[in-house]
Amino acid sequence: MKILMFAIPVFMVTILVEAAIAWRMGRRGVYDVPDAITSLHHGVLSQAIGGFAKLVDVALYVAVYEAFHLFEWSRDSVLAWVAALLLYDFSHYWYHRFSHEIPVLWGSHVVHHSSEYFNLSTALRQPATAALFTWIFHLPMAVLGVPPVMYLIVGLVDLLYQYWVHTELVGRLGVLDRILVTPSNHRVHHGQNDYCIDRNYGGIFVLWDRMFGTFVDERDGEKIAYGIRKPLRSLNPLWSNLQVYADLIRQTRAARGLAGKLAVWFGRMQAPEPMDPSVVRRYDPETPSSVAAYGAVQYTLTMVMLLHFLSGFEAFPVQVSVTYSIVILVSCVTIGGVLEGSRIAFAAETVRLGALALASMTLPDWFGLPLPTAARAVVTAGALAAAIWLLALRRERPSAPAAA
Predict the structure, then answer these.
(1) DSSP assignment, residue 370?
(2) Distance CA 231, CA 42 (A)
(3) How far is residue 50's CA from residue 65's CA, in Å, rounded to a whole number?
(4) CA-to-CA distance for 244 and 283, rounded, in angstroms?
(5) pLDDT value at 179 more than 60
(6) Would you give the DSSP letter of residue 268?
(7) Domain coordinates in residue numbering, the chain
(8) Phi-psi map region of 403: left, alpha, beta (phi>0 left; psi -120 to 50 alpha)
(9) pLDDT, tens only, 54-113
(10) Which of 32, 85, 97, 107 has the CB geometry, 3.0–4.6 Å to 154, for a possible disulfide?
(11) Is the pTM of this model over 0.90?
């Protein structure tokens, strides 16, 4: 988490740079501000909520390693680190592949595919529940003796590598496209086009796809439609994490017998029907630029909260961490609803801002962070100013839908 604290500012800067380059090139369809903010909200929740699941992941790995590891690995050996990275990427391939084939795993992974845009912000659209399942695929590394510290570091390297491949601005890279996961290869993976479905699962190396028959090249003459066949059509990051599970629960109720109910969750997913990508239309809640600006400002403040959360996560008592994660969750959900124009979300966001102002005036600190008088005044004034801004925005959009 401490390393991610340093990575997050790099993510933000590179996203802004990519957006500026795309704008300069006249490629206005690369970014959509509400969609990008939604992707970033998912990234926030993947850390603020998913961090608890990651603790379970690490605890299980350590327990299996201590009880069953067969070999001793030297952390001073370069070859050992290379082997650990290859093992991690290999296990990631199978986790990723099964996440597209088994409904219960797809319910988590679908979050990453729910954006209908493909840019660096999409890389941060991560599920909050992934760590509940990934440990299953990594435990063989523990049995083989990969030390927990080595496991965590190569896992972070594998994850950070995958950030840069989420872009439309980098074309083909020649021989690298045959060895590594590159933007060209990964664009295919995020496509709805028939030839893109269930292809190119690798994290760093595309060699696994070539070995197991899941690789396909990007087609120059066919524009890729990004997203999922059953579109999310929402900017609510909580619903994005829950939507497939809600469908699975409904299907389970309708299924007959225990075998049928288990098949809903653990059976093999059916291949989708053929589709013409030219008919795909991106979800557009017609967010005014003024509302998008409000969302961007509030996201920035939420990111500051996330950085504070990550900095103290290891030291916070459990009840403090849970409370703080709920505060961050509510912020992301209400801001997403405002971007969609939900009347309920406008009301909830007003309450959130009022609660923030009240907390800054009455609490002795902010989750362990001392609040000097000047800081209290700034936070209170900022929350009240945001509430006034929000009221003005609400008046600009009287025809907003009743719910997100």
Answers:
(1) E
(2) 16
(3) 22
(4) 18
(5) yes
(6) P
(7) 2-212, 289-396
(8) beta
(9) 888 999 999 999 999 999 999 999 999 999 999 999 999 999 999 999 999 999 999 999
(10) 85
(11) yes
